[in-house]
Amino acid sequence: MSDTVSIDDHEFGQFQTWLYRAAGINLSPAKKALVAGRLFKRLKHYELQSYGEYFKLIMNDQRKGELQVALDLLTTNETYFFREPKHFDFLRQHVLPQAAPGRMFRVWSAASSTGEEPYSLAMTLAESLGTTPWEVIGSDISSQVLAKARTGHYSMERIETLPQPLLVKYCLKGMGRQEGTVLIDKALRNRVNFIQVNLNEALPALGEFEVIFLRNVMIYFDQQTKSQVVARLLPLLKRGGYLIISHSESLHGVNDTLKLVAPSIYRKP
């Protein structure tokens, strides 16, 4: 098999339609090269000659194993510790000081990718809440990134945005064969639960949250899907709770029940 196989418009259209139905993700024609690039290794693995053959394979996959692999490859997003730091500042300065002492404070990172966001939240809560109990849930559609997140094991490049005091307090530096990596402290890892959730389907019973982070995922959704996803999340947000989206996203025309309190930060009345 050659080192390149081009994807034609019909084949790309098949993946486009499937990904929209499965995950609500809208792939623009500009993403054609990305789809081909990310799936090419799988064509090689199965010694297939075309993306159409691979599509047929995942559609006929009874155990759904390869279907999940394809989904993982097409939905993985770039992330890093304390991304969009103003959101963490807002939590520290305005939300956490109001937390009811002694009552469980819960935060959901609804598109948690490889875990940097939920661990950043966990560090923020651990630093601010004292004896008040807390819990962080991290969810993603990709089983592959969740497996990575659960390990809490990152290369040094991944932690460049982590403030030095938090790095010293919550991370173990790799030695020997693990040199050049860090491991999130086990006590902190144990307080973050990772579960697979497709925001495009009925949500599992997760309980209620004081804060939901829904960042850098709606950029992939069309207006209708955005509205449906936010409508699904809102019953899980406590009254007075905060929904935090990315600075590059907006709820304009998506939901009118939430009150904008700061750029990209909304409160449930």
TrEMBL record:
Domain CheR-type methyltransferase residue range list: 1-269
Top EC class, one word: transferase
Protein name (database record): Chemotaxis protein methyltransferase
Catalyzed reactions: L-glutamyl-[protein] + S-adenosyl-L-methionine = [protein]-L-glutamate 5-O-methyl ester + S-adenosyl-L-homocysteine
Keywords from the named record: Methyltransferase, S-adenosyl-L-methionine, Transferase
Native source organism of the sequence: Pseudomonas extremorientalis
GO molecular function, one term: protein-glutamate O-methyltransferase activity
SUPFAM superfamilies, alphabetized: Chemotaxis receptor methyltransferase CheR, N-terminal domain, S-adenosyl-L-methionine-dependent methyltransferases
EC number of this enzyme: 2.1.1.80
InterPro entries assigned to the protein according to its UniProt record, in alphabetical order: Bact_Chemotaxis_MeTrfase, Chemotaxis_MeTrfase_CheR, CheR_C, CheR_MeTrfase, CheR_N, CheR_N_sf, SAM-dependent_MTases_sf
Record's keyword annotation contains Methyltransferase: yes
Lineage: Bacteria, Pseudomonadati, Pseudomonadota, Gammaproteobacteria, Pseudomonadales
